[in-house]
Amino acid sequence: MRKWLIFLGLGLAVWAQLPLPERSSAMHYDASRNVLILVVGEERIEGDRIEVVDLIGRRVFSQGVSVSGGEAVSVPLPSLPEGLYYARWVSENGRVRAVRRFAVPR
What would the pLDDT profile of 60-87 be if each residue is shown by its tens digit? Predict the structure, then answer.
């Protein structure tokens, strides 16, 4: 039993030191321009959707996006009332790539 615990401890120590896989996509909100900025790694992304929902869960904005590898794309948002919102970047097969909470100031 003691050997098993030592082996498990060494395995966990090695696993904790492994580097995390690089995230290939990111999304940020720029309040000064009222846009979502999408950044991808090397792959080309087509057929994805950006959805913005309010705190109640109502979809207030939805738009399809295509992003070439290694570039950043700005997605302009409509004028939204003051409040908190969630932006979801959903792939064409339904996988959520990123979720960001953002606030629209006065």
Answer: 999 999 888 778 889 999 999 999 999 9
Domain residue ranges in the chain: 22-104
Residue 8, H or E segment: helix 2-17
Q: What is the pTM of this model?
A: 0.71
State the Cα–Cα distance between residues 18 and 36, nearest whole angstrom: 32
Which phi and psi (to 5°) does residue 16 adopt? Answer: -65, -25
The sign of the CA dihedral 66, 48, 78, 26 is negative
| Residue recorded with tokens 């999408």 | 38
Token pair recorded at residue 99: 């979720």
- 10: burial class by Cβ within 10 Å (0-12, 13-18, 19+)? exposed
The CATH code for residues 22-104 is 2.60.40.10
